[in-house]
């Protein structure tokens, strides 16, 4: 069974493609794929911005992202004049959160919030914050209308699904009935509220303050009181971004490596996007090892290698070449089997295969080479 | 093949550890290595617990079993008599455990759960989740049966990836901002003592590639900085070098004598088209480039000066049988 081929250039050239989201499990080359796609789009005339989450240092340098600016900077290189433009930025989670607070709360209230220890924990340590802020930043970039294509890298999570779940998790945690109750004493002047919610709440506060200590509850309550007025705005924005993600102008590209774990995660992600009517464009399989000497079978190569090794005259490198080829055929077959398994389960998902580069990529030439491979050139 | 400049294998110091934390960059095969390590440590009649956190159910997938509950259950027999138990640590269940153990609040668990209190508490204090995880592991490491025999000879944790592992283990930092006093603080302090002691070793799984190696070196520095003990570096999926070392250098620059090679292939009975020979040459150049990159990666890893263990890439991929094969490789390199 063969899967349809992912038409990368068609996707990039389509003026209706406004947002490309690269997602997948950790270590599969999401950031590099996002950067390569953005570069190619810029060279093909799009006004492109790429939002990277945690790029490798040298890749960041190649894109001119030496400092965390939290705002896009145009990538300008000597002797490089793309038909469009390429802008790039690295997400600064804390600053994005701070900016959100400053925008939505009054000055005085914002300062209170920023100094609250509970806010500091939520804005830096909560497991969904990075995902939430990536979405927020995407929403901001889209709102400016300065770029006609936004390519988004997603946070390095253990599971590919975290990206979709985390914002929801954070906002429902902040919006929970319990947090509302914590904020409530201020509104209800503390009178009657405990009676109203009954013994459950008493038990709850007792348990929480027993475990965590009373100070934490006080901080949380102060945080919620300050946060409460902004919450509507937060949720509205999150919903707007969610809507943007499910609109036809968005294309999700699931990134994987030809390995069982990564492909299994990719499968989950594909099912999930499908279940939520999110626009899936296809699967990128990075670092494949296609056979280059296609006409020579592994068995023939091994037999010839053995016969050469029996003679002393031959240079060891020739038999080595044949063994390298046999290894390669085996590896290619294994990758092929894994991909065939994916395709059987998800027959309509288009696939782009990106043959492995000899070295890690951290310059524009390398990104361009990956872009060529992505597009099947 | 040992890494140049590193001490080899499993040192006496590591062998004494009872909590083996296995971390690594995403995609390096950390879960597989943790499972193989549990099998190797259990070899010869020992009992080892293989634990995971964060709800990915990687262990169940690896062993092809149903998703693990929050309960220790036997998952595999180790070579030469020995048993591996598996545990999936769930934050909510661990919190209820904790409440029950310390406050007899277990009865209230259902009410708390219904109110969303547990989700709330772990959200309120993200460090709490980690303390609950590590606290449960501490309990497993210390547990003894009625005869005073240790329940587990060792506990192996499939830990969060390198980027998060120090934060995960160094729980005081996360909690001290939030809980300055109280029992959870006391609990955390005990966990801190365990993870910083000789009883704990943090192993780092890597591949011979630039990014995983850099993350490994960063993690070693971070572990040192937090006064945690790095154990061994486990180099996973090592492929055999096929080219003689002296050939690699001029191969990477593409200086192969294609005519001579074609003649030699003809002598071996292979009449190949020019196109196929070009393909063979390209494959060989890629292989040589990879060897060169791996050599650089090895040199960089040697800077960490940690004991190193290598695991070969398995042609058939990883299934349950392969775990035993990897366990044998670990044992052969001194894992005990």
Main β-sheet, spatial strand arrangement of chain A: 3-4-2-5-1-6-7-8
Within CATH, the superfamily of chain A carries the name P-loop containing nucleotide triphosphate hydrolases
Oligomer: heterodimer
Shape of chain B: elongated
The beta-strand count of chain A equals: 8
Question: What is the terminal separation of chain A in angstroms?
Answer: 23 Å
Tell me, briefly, the overall form of chain A.
elongated
Structural class of chain A: alpha/beta
Mean pLDDT of chain B: 85
CA radius of gyration of chain B: 24 Å
Give a structural overview.
The complex is a heterodimer of chains A (377) and B (336). Chain A has helices at 8-13, 30-43, 57-62, 93-104, 107-115, 117-124, 129-144, 162-174, 177-187, 193-197, 199-212, 214-245, 260-275, 298-310, 316-345, 364-375, and strands at 19-23, 47-52, 73-74, 85-90, 149-153, 250-256, 280-288, 351-355. Chain A is an alpha/beta fold and 377 residues long. Chain A has one domain: P-loop containing nucleotide triphosphate hydrolases (Rossmann fold, 3-Layer(aba) Sandwich), CATH 3.40.50. Chain A has an 8-stranded mixed sheet, sandwiched between helices. In chain A, α13 links the parallel β6 (250-256) and β7. In chain A, α14 (298-310) packs antiparallel against α15 (316-345). Chain A is elongated and about 85 Å long. Chain A starts with 7 loop residues before the first helix and ends with a helix. With 336 residues, chain B is α/β, with parallel strands linked by helices. Chain B has one domain: P-loop containing nucleotide triphosphate hydrolases (Rossmann fold). Helix content of chain B is 51%, strand content 15%. Chain B has an 8-stranded mixed sheet, with helices on both faces. In chain B, a hairpin with a 4-residue loop joins β3 (73-77) and β4. In chain B, α4 packs across α7 and α6 packs across α7. The longest helix of chain B is centred in the C-terminal third of the chain and has 29 residues, at 274-302. Chain B is elongated, with a radius of gyration of 24 Å. The relative contact order of chain B is 0.18.
């Amino acid at each position: 069974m063969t899967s349809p081929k992912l038409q990368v250039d068609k996707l990039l050239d389509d003026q209706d493609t406004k947002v490309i989201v690269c997602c997948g499990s950790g270590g599969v080359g999401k950031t590099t794929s996002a950067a390569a796609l953005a570069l190619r789009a810029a060279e093909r005339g799009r006004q492109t911005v790429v939002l990277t989450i945690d790029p490798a240092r040298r890749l960041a340098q190649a894109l001119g992202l030496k400092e965390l600016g939290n705002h896009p900077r145009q990538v300008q290189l000597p002797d490089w004049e793309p038909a469009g433009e390429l802008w790039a930025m690295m997400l600064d989670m804390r600053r994005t959160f701070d900016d959100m607070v400053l925008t939505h709360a009054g000055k005085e209230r914002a300062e209170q919030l920023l100094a609250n220890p509970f806010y500091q924990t939520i804005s830096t340590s909560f497991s969904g914050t990075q995902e939430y802020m990536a979405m927020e930043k995407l929403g901001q970039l889209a709102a400016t209308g300065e770029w006609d294509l936004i390519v988004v890298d997603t946070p390095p999570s253990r599971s590919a699904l975290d990206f979709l779940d985390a914002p929801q998790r954070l906002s429902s945690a902040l919006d929970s009935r319990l947090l509302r109750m914590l904020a409530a004493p201020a509104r209800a002047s503390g009178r009657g509220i405990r009676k109203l919610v009954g013994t459950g709440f008493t038990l709850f506060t007792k348990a929480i303050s027993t475990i965590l200590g009373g100070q934490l509850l006080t901080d949380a309550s102060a945080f919620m009181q300050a946060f409460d007025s902004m919450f509507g705005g937060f949720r509205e924005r999150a919903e707007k971004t969610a809507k943007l993600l499910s609109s036809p102008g968005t294309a999700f590209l699931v990134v994987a490596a030809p390995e069982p774990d990564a492909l299994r995660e990719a499968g989950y992600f594909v099912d999930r996007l499908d279940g939520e009517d999110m626009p899936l464009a296809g699967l990128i399989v990075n670092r494949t090892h296609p056979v280059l000497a296609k006409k020579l079978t592994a068995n023939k190569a091994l037999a010839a290698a053995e016969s050469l090794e029996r003679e002393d005259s031959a240079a060891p490198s020739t038999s080595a070449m044949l063994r390298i080829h046999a290894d390669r055929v085996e590896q290619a077959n294994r990758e092929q089997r894994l991909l065939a398994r994916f395709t059987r389960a998800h027959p309509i998902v288009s696939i782009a295969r990106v043959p492995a580069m000899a070295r890690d990529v951290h310059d524009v030439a390398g990104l361009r080479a990956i872009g060529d491979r992505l597009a099947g050139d | 093949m040992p890494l140049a400049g590193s001490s080899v294998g499993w040192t006496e110091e590591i062998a004494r550890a009872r909590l083996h934390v296995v971390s690594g960059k995403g995609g390096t095969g950390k879960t597989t290595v943790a499972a193989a390590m549990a099998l190797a440590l259990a070899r010869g009649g020992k009992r080892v617990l293989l634990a995971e956190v964060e709800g990915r159910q990687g262990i169940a997938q690896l062993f092809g079993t149903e998703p693990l509950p929050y309960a220790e259950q036997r998952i595999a027999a180790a070579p030469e008599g020995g048993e591996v138990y598996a545990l999936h640590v769930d934050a909510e269940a661990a919190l209820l455990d904790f409440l029950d153990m310390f406050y007899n609040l277990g009865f209230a668990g259902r009410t708390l759960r219904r109110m969303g209190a547990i989700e709330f508490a772990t959200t309120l204090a993200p460090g709490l989740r980690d303390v609950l995880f590590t606290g449960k592991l501490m309990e497993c490491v210390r547990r003894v049966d009625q005869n005073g025999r240790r329940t587990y000879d060792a506990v192996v944790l499939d830990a969060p990836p390198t980027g998060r592992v120090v934060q995960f283990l160094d729980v005081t930092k996360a909690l001290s901002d939030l809980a300055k006093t109280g029992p959870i603080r006391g609990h955390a302090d005990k966990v801190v003592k365990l993870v910083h002691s000789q009883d704990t070793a943090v192993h780092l799984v890597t591949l011979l590639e630039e990014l995983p190696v850099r993350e490994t070196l960063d993690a070693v520095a971070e572990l040192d900085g937090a006064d945690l003990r790095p154990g061994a570096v486990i180099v996973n999926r090592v492929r055999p070098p096929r080219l003689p070392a002296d050939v690699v250098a001029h191969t990477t620059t593409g200086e192969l004598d294609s005519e001579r090679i074609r003649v030699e292939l003809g002598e071996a009975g292979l009449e190949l088209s020019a196109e196929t020979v070009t393909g063979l040459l390209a494959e060989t150049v890629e292989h040589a480039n990879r060897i060169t990159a791996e050599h650089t990666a090895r040199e960089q890893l040697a800077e960490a000066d940690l004991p190193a263990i290598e695991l070969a890439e398995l042609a058939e991929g990883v299934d349950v049988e392969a775990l035993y094969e990897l366990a044998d490789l670990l044992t052969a390199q001194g894992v005990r």
